[in-house]
Amino acid sequence: MQKVMSISNISDETTTEPPSPSPPPTYKLFSIRFLRLHGRDLFAASANWFLVDVVFYTSNFLLSHIFSSYSHNPSSSATTNVYDATFEVAKLGAIIAACSTIPGYWFTVFFIDKVGRVRIQIMGFFFMAVIFLAAGIPYCWYWSKHEQTKKGFMVLYGFVFFFCNFGPNTTTFIIPAELFPARFRSTCHGISGAAGKLGAIVGTVGFLWATREVEDGDDINQVYPDANRMRTAFLILGGVCIAGMFVTYFFTKETMGRSLEENEHEHERDKNVEDEEIGDGQSLAST
């Protein structure tokens, strides 16, 4: 027992002191210096996440309308119940996920360190904009012709989900996690994600507004009233993708090939350069 006590006493005496706390940060979140160093990055990450969620969630909502147009059969519409219709929409979503969504993720995993985050994000926004415009402008033509044009439209629409995941739907998660300093990383990533969820709300509500039925009867005399509303939704989504492409090109920094420590040191160098510029300005003012 004495040996045990003596060993414990020795261990207590030989324990090292706790490490000294790290120095406090020189600037706080949302301070003027933070906005100068990271405001542009936070804007780019939040805006891109907002725009891609507008497109992604609206595209999922459009599936039910597209499937109803694709499977419309007057002879069987009376016998189809809501459960069968829901099952068919879910089956269509599973097919798109297996053929477009999941392969898009794997393409991103393979190319993200070869092509770069920014290039993949710009490419995804660009091809989604092209697909939405190509599907939205001649929307009536797809559904007024024979069965082959309908199948072609479904394949074209599936590429939206492929380029969404081989593009901004993946990179918007990665870039904020690599771009900001360690003490701000989780907060800035959360702010960017919150902007994305706001985009999801705007997308779903905007979709309901764009595809609403006109109450005053203006669309009664139109040949394809539902097609005209869907065309509006597609053109709006194409414009959102173009906006995301420009935000990515002008505001988003590339983080490929750099570790988190290198990004941290780069921000510190920017801070030191700013301090030197401020000091030089003060010395010139004093003279």
TrEMBL record:
Record carries keyword Membrane: yes
Protein's UniProt name: Major facilitator superfamily (MFS) profile domain-containing protein
Region (Disordered): 1-24, 260-287
Any single GO CC term annotated in Swiss-Prot or TrEMBL for this entry: membrane
Keyword Membrane: yes
Transmembrane segments: 42-67, 92-112, 124-144, 156-179, 191-210, 230-251
Protein source organism: Brassica oleracea var. oleracea
Subcellular location: Membrane
Biological classification of the source: Eukaryota, Viridiplantae, Streptophyta, Embryophyta, Tracheophyta
InterPro entries hit by this protein: MFS_dom, MFS_sugar_transport-like, MFS_trans_sf
PANTHER family per record: SOLUTE CARRIER FAMILY 22 MEMBER
Keyword list, A-Z: Membrane, Transmembrane, Transmembrane helix
Domain Major facilitator superfamily (MFS) profile: 1-256
